[in-house]
Amino acid sequence: MTDPGAPHDLNVDRTFDGYEPSYQSFDDRPGLSDSAAKWQAVGLGELTGARVLDIGCNEGFFCGAAMGQGATFVVGMDRDDASLTEARRRFPDCTFIEMSWDDEWEGRVPDLGSYDMVFMFSAIHYAANPEQLVERIASALKPGGLLVLECGIADGDADRVLIERTHDQTWHFTRRGISNLLQGFTIEDEHPSVAQETDPVPRFILQARRSTT
Ligand SMILES: C[S@@+](CC[C@H](N)C(=O)[O-])C[C@H]1O[C@@H](n2cnc3c(N)ncnc32)[C@H](O)[C@@H]1O
Q1: pTM, entire model
Q2: Is residue 18 in some structural domain?
Q3: Tell me, what CATH number does 62's domain have?
Q4: Which residues does ligand 1 sit against, CB inside 6 Å?
Q5: b/e for 70-95, b at 16 or more Cβ within 10 A?
């Protein structure tokens, strides 16, 4: 089934791909996703002095990881208050904002236009309006800033494909869909991410650079 382009029902509150409650994993607590392996696959080097915004940050694993590699200002956004309570407990030096990415960013997301990097991992398939979301990401990044996107990429000629799983159905971008979505960015790198047990399509990590103007 191909994407008719209409917003669709996204059952994301505390479901994390259908699993309750822990998605990310930490040294002291397992989760559905092997977060350390994912970070290794993301493969960013030193982030000295970087300003980072993590969209759909969950319990903040990647915010903490970015700070651990030298980032100095890290903001995580998620709409799940319980996840953010845990994120704040684990990573008090990061800033966490509870909001939907569908809400107005102006006045909520600090210092729009100043970020060196935006992370969006395992989340874009939940976006009801991914085009608007990518526009907002571009406006959060400074010129020449980097979007690091981790997502499943489906086969097919349409931009998105509805993938049915046992517990839900989600829209996944195809390669064509990703390149249409990321117009205004230059995709500089694409490589495989770590597979998760319930993945319906292979996951990839893309580094996409915002134009310098
Ligand atoms: C599958 S988890 C991925 C978490 C994390 N990025 C990772 O890779 O470990 C998806 C996250 O996106 C968040 N989320 C889903 N829809 C959202 C929305 N509209 N606005 C903000 N966060 C959202 C969920 O609360 C959840 O924490």
Answers
A1: 0.91
A2: no
A3: 3.40.50.150
A4: 12, 16-17, 23-24, 33, 35, 56-58, 61, 77-80, 83, 100-102, 121-123, 126
A5: ebebbbbbbbbeebbebbbebbeebb
